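Journal club side-thread
Mid-discussion, someone asked how the predicted structure for our own chain would compare to the paper's figures. Pasting it here so we can look after the session.
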Amino acid sequence: MLTATAAVAQSGIVSAIIYDDRGEPLKGATLLAENPEAFPPTLTTTSDDRGRVNLIGLRSGQWGFTVEYPGFQPSRFALPVRQNDRNRRPVLVRLERIPSIVLGGPLAGVDVEDLQADLTAADEALAAGNVDSAIARYRAALERAPGLPVINLQLGEAYRQKDDAAGAIAAFEALLASEPTHAAALYQLAEIHERQGQLDRARELYQRASGAEPAWAKPILRLALLARTQGDARGAEAQLKRVMLVDPQSPEAVQAEALLADTPR
């Protein structure tokens, strides 16, 4: 869906969930990203049948975003994009048709401004190291908006910072139960299983993460390192070359090139 040919050489990603004034997701809404200091300076994608968009290929910097859908007023917002930032929770974008009461959909009856404020407070608590407060706020947000299971991504990260592997696994698996191809959740879950020594399970999850987002170098690099750990030199070399192919400008590509240079011939 991306209109820029350089999208595979990504550094950041911005996700959003676009819905209408009745709380229903909008399929085919357009998300335009603009940054005159980047190359390319614009990127565009469209939402899927659940209103979700994932815009990859964004270089680090300040980006402006415009969301449009026929018959609705456009919505605009700005965000800083950081290199390899994959765990940012999606932006909730409500498009107004005419003033109306929210009747149904995943955000039915939810005060979205209050929800966004609560999530921001949770993010700030997590960034400040107040992990227990962040967990409580994310869990409260999930109770308020059970139709947004993606909140589990940040909840899982909070549990990881608390070194609560069981809590993190439960959060990521809850997200994957509704969105089985969520690449960031698959990757985070794979890391946990790898650290627990469950290498086969970790490999499976890294493979799924790579399949869900083929232009993301991080899970491919992890697959290469797993192969090296298990003595599969040929498999490791193949995965390292994949890293350099899918995202040659990424930090993972630099690491892959160094590892290939150290590989005995």
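Post-session note: Residues 53 and 202 are 27 Å apart (CA to CA).
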